Sequence to fold (673 residues):
Amino acid sequence: MVMIIDILKLISIFVLGFFLPGYLVARMLHSRMIHVTSILGSILILFQTIFYLQIADIPLRYDTLICTLLGITIALSALFHFRKKANLIKPIDDPISKPSPFFIIFSIAILLLITYRLTMAPLTGPDIIFRWEHLPKLMLTHQNFDFYPPFTGEDYTKYFFTDSFPPMVQFTYFSLYSAISTHSKEVANLLTILQFVLIIFSAYYIIKKETDSTHSDTFLILFLFSNFSFFKILSYGQENGWLSISLLLTWFFLYKNEDKTSNFILAAIITSVGTLSREYGGFIFCCGILLCFVYKVKMKHLLVYAAIVSALIAPWFIRTWVITGNPVYSLNLLGFYVNPGHKEVLNQLNLISGLTINTKVRITKTIILLIQFAFIPIVFGFWYLIKNRKVGLLILILFNTIIWIMSIRFTASIEGSLKVLLPSLIILCIDAAIFLSKNYKKAQLSISLVAGFILCLGLCVNIFIYQKGTTIKGIFIALFLIIITLEVIFFLRQRENISQITISVMFAVSVTWVILNISIYPTSISYINSIGDMIIHVTRRHNVPILEDAFWTNFRHKVKGRFRVIGENPYIHSITYGTNVELIPLWSPEIAFLMNEKHDAEEFYQRLRELNIHGFLYYPNVYTGKWYEQTPFYKACMFGDRKLIKHPNLSAGDGEWQLYLVPPARKINDTKK
Fold:
């Protein structure tokens, strides 16, 4: 019975939170692409609803959320009824050609495989546990997000990391969690699958509006899903899908504006979804303004677009500004306040991952990764854009690339930063598909041959990097070599059939590759977090991190009572939250006195004892450890006769993590001595 009730509550959230309000708005604005714009409009309304419930100090629960959404839907329904009665609602008339049987079958097969893969290993992004899922879990527990963005010491005991970006993703997760009264990655996966569906449909719609070629959708689906990065990045379950859809449709509605005010309102809604998905999502708004000038939009329409976007996104940034003194806390922008500890962490991270470090090696690695991930879409996509002078799309890709370059200094690896480029990758897949479909019969033979060869080569590289089984590697490399050899033979003997052969090659290789990736990768995942040597295993079904070297299994059981420890590992904080162990980040204002150069060791210890802080977790060989070594606290307390005491049972080797304990207070007699 309880399960039935939870299912009904989930359905109500999906209807009122993810479809119906946006559908009514989209119908009143005579939207094309009605289903996609309905969902985007709905999640924007959902975001605003949760935000203003918080502002009104109303507890965030399923009942308050669903009642508010129901009230909004009723109001929109009444407005829709009156507009329809006044003959202001036009019927939807937006025909597009039907997809090919291959597109339908392949799309369904892919989505089934994706569903299976996500069920086996849901939400696998490296920062899911302490960021994207942690906030909705805390909202479920506390029925608010007063602690976000974290600014005070108390805030940091709940939300460990220094974030303030708009939580569009987290709010959608919270809405689902509130329906079932618990957090469930399997339920959250529904939104990840939804992002796949929306991107496929949006790309298909656009490509059919741009070309009437019968082969365009076939090329599109192959380019999207033979791309390992597309599958991998979206599977994280983070902001990448919403940013990609927002950027793509912002361009489309401004490009196809037909001089209608309703199209600019829709574009504003779509832009706002992306802008409220991440702190750098504002580049979509900047692109939208530039596109208005590129497409010579009337000033009144430009003002409508800019005013609506500003009205929808400004409240979040104003709230952040009021709380922290910085609308994009804690980014160092225009002299606004930044958390000094967080600033130093980013500086240290930039020293090991910025573009100025091993520049040649990193640029070479980036080029190899881009070739490996999306050679054909990049080459033919740019060819099409430049040949046809698609200035608007080139602007989008340029801005997206600038944001990616800026993000590298804050990302621990080039591979991790490439997720920022997903919107550009999807645009290039669409344009490459348009180009090849238009030139399907008259394409130059050499280009066609190179395309097939590079696709096979890129997939071989993917297998070497991402698949572990040597048998699988051998089989697929042999298969690719045979295919390429046959293609060369046919090219030499029957030139007129080379295009058909290349398409067949792409079909066979791409389908096989996608099935291999989705069905096998990953049933279980292991990755090393930014600490360097503490391995986190993600279990097959529940994505539960388990720290090796006995930290999690022994630490909390060996310490007695409440144990407060200074550290910087967000994974440990997420795991220990709500237990007798409380991890305090070194950048928390509660312990800002550790940066005071006037304190000696005894003064540091006395202040720590007053705060009931018992220990200090230290990682020598990572960038945060290097920062610790420069602090007055470290210099005063790691040397001399009153050193921190290394825990005998809860420390790893000298090059790994170490736990130090605050020495007990000296007796008066000892002090006199």
Residues 463-470, 519-550 have pLDDT under 50 and may be disordered. The first helix runs from residue 2 to 18.
